[in-house]
Amino acid sequence: MGSWKLLDGNHAAAWGARLSNAQVVGIYPITPQTEVVSQISQFVADGEMKAELVVAECEHSALSICIGASAMGSRAFTASCSQGIVHMEEPIWFVPGYRLPIVMGVVNRPIAFPAGESKHGPISLVEPGFPVIFVCPMDSTHKTIIGNIMEMKARGASIIAILEEEDEEIKRLADDYIEVPKGIPEVLSPTLFVIPLQLLAYYLAVEKGLDPDKPRNLAKSVTVK
User: Fold this and answer.
1) Which of 11, 86, 135, 213 could covalently link to 7 via disulfide, CB atoms 3.0 to 4.6 Å apart?
2) How far apart are CA 93 and CA 202, in angstroms?
3) Is 36 helix (H, G, I), strand (E, B) or coil?
4) Domain count, the chain
5) pLDDT tens, 110-129?
6) Does some domain include residue 81?
7) What is the chain's Cα-based Rg?
8) What's the pLDDT score for residue 109?
9) Mean pLDDT, rounded, of the chain
10) What percent of the chain shows pLDDT beyond 70?
């Protein structure tokens, strides 16, 4: 009989790379995909996986390494996250354009960006049901944010708005919303609007069984140079 092994998502992705006989692994070890490439590195060091590990200086280069390797006929693997894929925006279109069979382990993680930047890459990730959280102060950006919300809704996104009281226009557009007190001076609004975001992050972590005070792969103090 075969044996069973309980793995988390990152280690399962590393095992997938090993079992698929990946020959070239372009790696940029950074949270949250550090554990994927660390496990692959251990496989190679222990002689359990025959692959060339190429350490890159950024996400962009990690994918570029895989593009070159795949174009030459090697099986290529890398790992990233949704924020990292945004940094890969320039080379990522070569992969489907050249029909390169690159495998990428994507560790789920939300993207944070100014609303006006959505057309420059992040909007490509949106599909029906994809949750998008908008921070909607009643300031000079309000009309622009309404336009961004409508663009996301047109692609089927689920809109969650953090808005000021009596902002009826955005309430009509949002699927869900959280109100904050109105009339806060613009210079102080980030202090108020960040509170619902912090609570959302906290309760999502708790719901997933994670300790918000001990983020994986992160330290609250730096003790090495």
Assistant:
1) 11
2) 35
3) helix
4) 2
5) 667 777 667 766 777 788 99
6) yes
7) 21
8) 62
9) 86
10) 90
Q: Residue 217: its pLDDT value, please?
A: 63
Q: Which residues of the chain have pLDDT under 50?
A: none
Give the pLDDT confidence score for residue 3 in this predicted structure. 78
CB 106 within 8 A of CB 20: no
Residues 6+ apart with CB under 8 A from 17: 25, 36, 40, 49, 51, 77, 103, 105
- What is the C-alpha to C-alpha distance for residues 211 and 87, in angstroms, rounded to an integer? 28
The domain of 196 spans 115-207
H-type alpha helices, the chain: 9-19, 34-45, 59-71, 82-87, 89-92, 94-97, 142-154, 168-173, 189-207
- Round to whole Å and give the CA distance between 111 and 29: 18
136 lies in some domain? yes
Tokens 């895989």 belong to 66
Length of the chain: 225
The residue type of 18 is R
CATH assignment of the domain containing 70? 3.40.50.970
- Determine contact, residues 178/162, Cβ cutoff 8 Å: yes
